[in-house]
Write a structure and sequence with these properties.
- With about 290 residues, the chain is α/β, with parallel strands linked by helices.
- It is built from eight helices and twelve strands.
- Strands 1-3-2-4-5-12-11-10-7-8 form a ten-stranded mixed β-sheet, sandwiched between helices. A two-stranded antiparallel ribbon has the order 6-9.
- It starts with 8 loop residues before the first strand and ends in a 6-residue tail after the last helix.
Length: about 290
């Protein structure tokens, strides 16, 4: 990978059958969360290992963490350095997925080039990562209606595709923590990018929606599985991520009070992060290629 002040960190697996996942870290953890749980990539490694242990038979996950924020000592990998990569997950971030920071534009270009030149690579993304992948495929990213925050524990109503992916009954729902004010307005399609031919439109699915966010995740068979919700958050991370956004001024206590109070009240509630991690792991492994 590209030279960086932050070396690659590989988290190995003990299983013979495993998925090797490149985690592109697009932000830093709160210092207390980093002390307790490591980087965002470390959080995903732990979560996916739990999901892999519940897979039948058990399935390993080997993560390679690569920090890409160049302003903070990271680097965006080059295409020629990705020959042995077949599964990529892009993390959440306090940056805007519609922003034009040089590293964000480089990451969008990398995704577009890999999508076209490496059709065997499977992509996943969480929150910022979900939005950035959709942006790379031409979708519009903008603030939610009235710039309303969607925070903490949130029910997500599943489409038939979502129910199949998560092994839920038709019309079911899952719950994830949320931490966003931007959203994907419409999913990618052949109308938004030449990277998706018109005959592929029938294979592009929104897997769930919430009261605030219509596109909670996008699924394209063998290529893309994204989620707006944070599958790796726990109670402490929710509280600390909120405080970081209050400190940065993006959450305003005066105007976002209702959402803020709800987030703090529900931060401890159980959510379906392991369920979603398991579905993404099956996607990477190819178990659900007929969905």
């Amino acid at each position: 990978m590209s030279p960086s002040n932050r070396p690659l960190r590989t988290k190995p697996t003990v299983h013979d059958d495993f998925v090797r996942m490149l985690v592109l870290e697009t932000d830093e953890q709160h210092p207390d969360d980093h002390k307790e749980r490591g980087s965002f990539g470390d959080v995903f490694d732990s979560l996916f290992k739990r999901a892999g242990d519940e897979h039948d038979p058990p399935l390993g996950i080997e993560t390679v963490n690569h920090f890409v924020v160049e302003d903070k000592g990271g680097s965006v990998p080059k295409v020629e350095e990705m020959e042995d990569v077949h599964a990529i997950l892009i993390t959440g971030s306090m940056y805007d997925a519609h922003g034009n920071e040089p590293w964000i534009l480089k990451l969008v270009e990398l995704i577009q080039t890999l999508w076209q030149s490496r059709p065997s690579i499977r992509f996943s993304g969480v929150c910022f990562g979900h939005q950035l992948l959709c942006r790379a495929l031409g979708a519009q990213i903008s603030p939610t209606p009235d710039s309303k925050w969607e925070l903490a524990h949130t029910p997500i109503h599943l489409t038939p595709t979502g129910a199949a992916l998560f092994n839920h009954p038709p019309g079911g729902k899952i719950h994830l923590h949320q931490m966003h004010q931007d959203h994907v307005v419409f999913p990618p399609s052949s109308a938004t990018t030449p990277l998706l031919p018109e005959h592929h439109d029938r294979d592009i699915h929104v897997w769930g929606s919430s009261a605030t966010t219509e596109v909670q995740g996008v699924y394209i068979r063998r290529r893309l599985f994204t989620t707006q919700g944070h599958l790796g958050f726990d109670e402490d991370m929710v509280h600390r991520q909120i405080e970081m956004r209050i400190a940065s001024g993006s959450i305003q206590v005066e105007t976002d009070g209702e959402e803020l109070a709800n987030a703090r009240d529900t931060a401890e509630w159980k959510h379906d992060g392991v369920v979603v991690a398991g579905a993404i792991l099956r996607f990477f492994h190819g178990d659900d290629d007929e969905i």
